[in-house]
Design a protein that fits this description.
Length: about 325
């Protein structure tokens, strides 16, 4: 059992993480810090933890081995660098930072400290997405030439996102910075680091940030992938498509279909054909802290840095009407 310090309850997944820690039987939320004292105190009380309003006091606690960061994304640099200097293992919501410079500063502090780091990239543990990775890497699709992923919801058009989600001083951006992280980190999981990126964004409902966004990325070998997201669509499942010269994979929600030349057509993929689900990023983090095994595979600093670079490039591209070259 390890003691976890919760850095803020700002993020919508903060409660999910606290519940997951409690259910694991391996860790407990022992202390909470939040810039909003009322929110932090209520969150701490709900999990039987101590609320500590002073961050320096919180992060210096000797009985806290690791932290889970759910703060506003724009606060990550100041909070996480201090956590690394204090020798705390770090799990964080995405993005690690809203721009490449600050992301690199956080990475440098974490590398220097030697603490275990994990970023929450849950689709990289998903059975269907692991199947896509297996096919792309194995050559089963022939030469992979393209891909597409969409994750979107109706948070703006149906008015259920919290108001703080539109405060760019906290979020750093809108749909692409939030939901868009999922297609971005999945495309880099499948295809590696990008060569160039073009972004296109709009806000049809007039909030202060992008509500509808696409990033088009080219990867090594001529692979072109579309990363699509929105806060203004209803009833769209997660969609992943991977295209190759000998076959293509289509994932729509729970349905997985493989069209391969070797199979003379398309076929539904049965659950028994899929690789096993991996533990969630948070549980992998907890296990790594307990066992001293270091950062879990595909959930580390370089993965976080590539994601930030891609999303920052998409915003630059949209703002300056240009393709960003890496």
């Amino acid at each position: 059992m390890i003691n976890i310090g919760m850095i803020s309850a700002w993020h919508v997944h903060a409660e999910d993480y606290a519940n997951e820690l409690k259910a694991s039987g391996k860790a407990r939320v022992a202390a909470v810090w939040d810039g909003d004292e009322k929110r932090g105190a209520e969150f701490a009380a709900a999990y039987g933890a101590e609320f500590i309003p002073d961050y320096d006091e919180f992060i210096s606690r000797g009985d806290i081995a690791a932290v889970v960061c759910n703060s506003p994304t724009t606060m990550h640099p100041g909070l996480l660098i201090k956590a690394a200097v204090a020798g705390k293992h770090i799990f964080t919501e995405k993005l690690l930072a809203t721009n490449t410079l600050e992301c690199e500063q956080i990475c440098e502090a974490i590398r220097k400290s030697g603490v275990t780091f994990t970023i929450s990239l849950p689709l990289r543990t998903n059975s269907k997405m692991l199947y896509a990775k297996k096919l792309a890497d194995s050559g089963a699709l022939g030469r992979v030439t393209g891909g597409r992923m969409r994750r979107s919801h109706s948070g703006v058009s149906d008015k259920w996102l919290p108001e703080r989600w539109f405060d760019v001083s906290q979020t750093g951006g809108g749909a692409m910075m939030d939901l868009g992280a999922h297609p971005v980190y999945l495309m880099s999981f499948l295809f590696g680091a990008p060569v160039r990126i073009s972004g296109l964004m709009s806000n049809p409902y007039g909030t202060s940030s992008d509500e509808n966004a696409v990033a088009l990325a080219e990867f090594q070998g001529g692979v072109i992938a579309s990363c699509e997201t929105a806060f203004v669509t209803y009833g769209v499942p997660d969609i992943l498509e991977v295209y190759g010269t000998e076959g293509s994979l289509f994932i729509w929600g729970d349905e997985v279909k493989l069209a391969a030349r070797a199979n003379t057509g398309a076929c539904l993929v049965k659950p028994s054909d899929l690789p096993p689900e991996k533990p969630s990023p948070l549980i992998q983090f907890v296990d790594a802290c307990i066992n001293g095994t270091g950062t879990p595979e595909h959930l580390g600093l370089e993965d976080a840095l590539i994601m930030t670079k891609m999303i920052e490039a998409a915003y630059i591209s949209d703002r300056e009407n240009k393709i960003v070259i890496f």
